[in-house]
Amino acid sequence: GTPLMRPMFFEEPSNLRIQNVSDQYLWGNAILVAPVMEAGVKEREIYFPQGSNWYSLQGQKVRGGSNYKVAVEENSIPVYFRGGSFVPMLKESIQSTEEYSKSGIVIRYTHDETVKSATGVFYDDDGQTPDAYAKGEYELIRFESKWNGRTLKITVKSEKGKKYKGRERTLDIVVTHDNHDEKATIKLKAGSRSEIKFNLGK
Fold first, then answer.
1. pTM, rounded to two decimals
2. Spans of the chain, pLDDT less than 70
3. Which long-range contacts (CB under 8 A, 24 or more apart) does 99-107 make?
């Protein structure tokens, strides 16, 4: 299968300009990571894959298909999210799966007005059972966004394995747009679905 950590040419296999780019990578399909390789660097050049807009953690928008120089902060590295992507995150950092809590999940959706619909999926199990998927002890949570120019509708659907014992979880939905966040919280029972709307029109 496709690795989680992906070289740039995975995104654009016919683009000869990025065949040898090795100082940045994609984390899954949604996150672009550009590590800082030298001490004291104040800025670095990044190639942003074409076909999408990309957004920094602070909401700065960059058009794909070109190289840009971005400022580098001392205690962080440049990270960008693809417009129209769902990214599951944890509220707090953990050191092992023993610290994992189903109630600590945040779903970050990076809104882009050019993306009319998008999908995402999150796989979950107890983190301890070997071959949990094969045994049916898992949950798949599917996300879908629909944008009509004013309202963003996000649908969340849970699909559970035959032996999955989970019941209800709390999900924080964070929609990032125009340099700020819209937040909402939903309760989702295993095997059910939920919808939430955000009025983002100007």
1. 0.91
2. 95, 97, 99-103, 202
3. 100/127, 102/166, 102/169, 103/169, 103/170, 105/169, 105/170, 105/171, 105/172, 106/171, 106/172, 106/173, 106/174, 107/143, 107/156, 107/171, 107/172, 107/173, 107/174
